[in-house]
Amino acid sequence: MGVINLLAVDLGASNGRVMQATFDGDAMKLEEIHRFPNMPMTHESHTVWDFGWIKKQVQGGIAKAIDTQRDIASVAVDGWAVDFGFLDSNGKLLRDPVHYRDESHPKAMAEVLSRVSPSELFQRTGIQLQPFNTLFQLYARLHENPKSIERAQSMLLIPDLITFFLCGAKAAEFTNASTTQMLSAATGTWDRELLSRLGLPTHLLPNVVSPGQIAGFLTDPELARLVPSQALSKIQVIHAASHDTASAVISVPSESSRVAYISSGTWSLLGTEVERPVTSEQARLYNLTNEGGVKNHRLLKNVMGLWILQEGQRVFVERGEPHSISDLLQQAERAAPLRCLFNPNDPRLLHPSDMVETVRQICRETGQEAPDDAGSFVRSVLDSLSLAYREALLQLEEVAGTRFDAVHVVGGGSQNHRLNQFTANATNRVVKAGPVEASAIGNALVQLLALGHVSSRREMKDVVMRSFGAVTYEPKDVAAWDAAYERFQQISQRQFKGE
């Protein structure tokens, strides 16, 4: 075969990318075409996404790629989960999508759980309780202003929304739809009975489609004004594994099934792949979740992730201490290890006005000396994340009934060498880090599958291992980290009891 060129639109909660993947039948190369910041804004008392900006940047990236490399076979979109937009009967977006960190969602979750028990909800959907799940978001939108969605004819998750504007296809791609807590774990289709019980509008829901299905051809009229229309008409739009974590997991470079992964970025998602959802009571108590994969499911746990570090950096800049992330990590290297610990999954860390002071307050509440400078703050974040990974890994192993030989870290966080080493120390497992652009790689691999250039998950993994390297970290100072983990568990108990 000749060389094939693909475009992977990879939308993250802090930035987006349009990447070009080139496949020669053996290995893949990845090139960044366009990268753009993705920041929320405030509108009518809600935190929302500037969808017009996102769409414009995606269109500009695709146009740039076509202009420099006209031989593009296909394009696909992946992105973050749970958030969505409403379309009217003419396909017009009614309002900017509300951000998952919006403060209206915890109240909606409490109201839903007063009508459906947490146990039943987990049994039906296999999804962990998080206030930002689509189920609670939709409930919030309906009850805060029912008239605001009267004109809505459909609702689409963010990657599906971009796909719609690219080619006109309305669908709910399975991997992302599975995160909504609105899909039946047993059937993989919308749980309409559950939604009807909650008074939620089921007529808005599109059909669920599997990753790798062809959505259509590029027909976006706005994009057609940027490039010749004949250049668009030959480019197929494909449903990737549109949840960015599902795409990232495809690119984990391992032949073994005895491997756990961490998709590391704004959030850290630690999990493994399973054949079918695990909805045991122990899985529910550990707040594990079952999300769709490519011909399988992902059993995993969400940990707050590098959002804490990113927000800490923002606070330091606002205080007139403009540290780069690399500066902060170097300062952390000089800070005392394992001194201030906290559980990153504290709801107060979801969207605080001052991340640094919130972490300091949690440390004081749990009887510790609060981190007193930037270096000690960052060291506290890295130590605490690593120990939270250990906790999640042990819970995952218990529920899955196996011990994992290694932990693969993929995504942007795989570049954080200190966090990778601390994760190896804390878990007493070998950590293998990379590839960095895991979601874009997985996105491109599903396109290759759809176009018939690979035929199985095994072949997809082989392409990754031939194309992208990984850095190995061996555990160190295990005894010290074992002692720290005991402290971490005690601190977590005090933290969540408010002691």
Overall 3D shape: globular
Average pLDDT, rounded to a whole number, is 95
Strand order of the largest sheet: 15-16-14-13-17-18-19
Number of helices: 19
Main β sheet profile: 7 strands, mixed
CATH level-four homologous superfamily name of the largest domain: ATPase, nucleotide binding domain
Question: Might you state the CATH topology name of the largest domain?
Answer: Nucleotidyltransferase, domain 5
> How many independent structural domains?
2
**Ranges with pLDDT <50 over ≥5 residues?**
none
CATH class of the largest domain: Alpha Beta
In angstroms, what separates the terminal alpha carbons? 64 Å
Percent of residues in helices comes to 40-55%
The number of strands is 19
Specify the structural class: alpha/beta
Radius of gyration, in angstroms, nearest whole number? 22 Å
CATH architecture verdict of the largest domain: 2-Layer Sandwich
Give a verbal description of the structure.
- The chain has 499 residues and is of the alpha/beta class.
- It has 2 domains: 4-244, Nucleotidyltransferase, domain 5 (2-Layer Sandwich); 252-434 and 469-499, Nucleotidyltransferase, domain 5 (2-Layer Sandwich), CATH 3.30.420.40.
- It is built from 19 helices and 19 strands.
- The chain has a 7-stranded mixed sheet, with helices on both faces. The chain has a 6-stranded mixed sheet with strand order 3-2-1-6-12-11, with helices on both faces.
- A hairpin with a 4-residue loop joins strand 15 and strand 16.
- The longest helix has 27 residues, at 374-400.
- The protein is globular.
